[in-house]
Design goal:
- Helix content is 64%, strand content 0%.
- Helix 6 (88-104) packs parallel to helix 8.
- The protein has 9 helices and no strands.
- It starts with a helix and ends with a helix.
- The protein is mostly helical and 183 residues long.
Length: 183
């Protein structure tokens, strides 16, 4: 709760959150910045995705794409680091970042690593995560690399619907929801 409130108010006041996003988004030479530093900065930006403020999430997403352009292996480390996160905003946005990075990248070896990681984690088992946004971004990232002919081992059918993801264990009735949310 405190983190979400901090993000909301600090970003609204053009404070440190705004500064972190602007630095990452600015076009500049980052070739002298270590991969470890880029990963730490990227981790910070990924935690901005927990905000309920869509505008902040959108800007943080674009900033992270800019930061990770040409750093595909760092992107894979971030995806791995957040693999078990239970916030759907974070997961979906990281796959959106992956999509943006592979579209902008000229590093064929790097985007191949990204596509193979995404396919293995999200699609290879045949039951990708239930988030429609996550699936859409993950599939688009893999398709963008497939179009380049870099991952012939990936079967295109594995990234198309219908999927066999499990749904919720039990769907609550309208009466149950009313009781829960009305006190």
């Amino acid at each position: 709760h405190w983190w979400s409130m901090f993000l909301y108010w600090d970003y609204s006041d053009a404070g440190n959150v705004h500064g972190v996003i602007e630095w990452a988004w600015a076009e500049r030479d980052r070739s002298q910045i270590s991969e470890a530093a880029i990963e730490l900065y990227g981790t910070t930006l990924a935690w901005f995705f927990t905000s309920s403020q869509r505008f902040l999430r959108d800007r943080a997403t674009k900033a992270l794409v800019s930061l990770l352009e040409g750093r595909e292996r760092v992107l894979v480390r971030l995806l791995e680091k957040f693999r078990e996160v239970n916030d759907p905003y974070v997961s979906a946005r990281l796959y959106a970042v992956a999509h943006g990075v592979v579209l902008r990248s000229e590093d064929n070896a790097g985007v191949k690593v990204v596509a193979e990681w995404i396919h293995r984690e999200a699609f290879a088992a045949g039951a990708p995560p239930p988030s429609v946004l996550l699936r859409m971004h993950a599939a688009a990232a893999v398709k963008a690399v497939m179009v380049r002919g870099l991952v012939p081992s990936i079967d295109p059918a594995t990234i198309r619907t219908p999927f066999k993801s499990e749904g919720p264990e039990a769907i609550r009735s309208l009466d149950e929801l009313k009781t829960q949310f009305q006190g």
